Amino acid sequence: MQIARDWNVPASSSGFVTRFQVKADYVAKYEVQKVGSSIARELWVPAEELAEFNENIVGEIEVIREFS
């Protein structure tokens, strides 16, 4: 939420927080990266792997917060 609110809103006037599941065996190849502060963690998926990543999403993508 911090990234969406504090970084995305000033840069582009809006930010969204989403929740979704990815197959565990697929996502295990990516290391969790710390960004900005010790509480901000994310997976860095190379752009050229995005289609494959999307194929491994299970279920729906849910928007849980919106900032503007």
Task: Please sum up the structure shown.
By secondary structure, the protein is of the alpha+beta class. It has helices spanning 2-12, 24-27, 50-55, and strands at residues 15-22, 32-34, 41-43, 57-67. A two-stranded antiparallel sheet has the order 1-4. The chain has a two-stranded antiparallel ribbon with strand order 2-3.
What does this structure look like?
This protein has one domain (2-67). Helix content is 31%, strand content 37%. The chain has helices spanning 2-12, 24-27, 50-55, and strands at 15-22, 32-34, 41-43, 57-67. The strands form two sheets. A two-stranded antiparallel ribbon has the order 1-4. Strands 2-3 form a two-stranded antiparallel sheet. Strand 2 (32-34) and strand 3 (41-43) form a beta hairpin. The longest helix is centred in the N-terminal third of the chain and has 11 residues, at 2-12.
Helicity range: 25-40%
Rg (CA only): 13 Å
Order of adjacent strands in the largest pleated sheet? 1-4
How would a textbook summarize the main sheet? 2 strands, antiparallel
Flag low-confidence runs.
none
Total beta-strand segments: 4
How many H/I helices? 3
How many domain modules? 1
User: Separation of termini?
Assistant: 12 Å
**How much β-strand is present in the residues?**
35-45%
Element order, helices and strands?
Answer: HEHEEHE
The 3D shape can be described as globular
Entry keywords:
68 residues; alpha+beta; two-stranded antiparallel sheet; two-stranded antiparallel ribbon; 3 helices; 31% helix
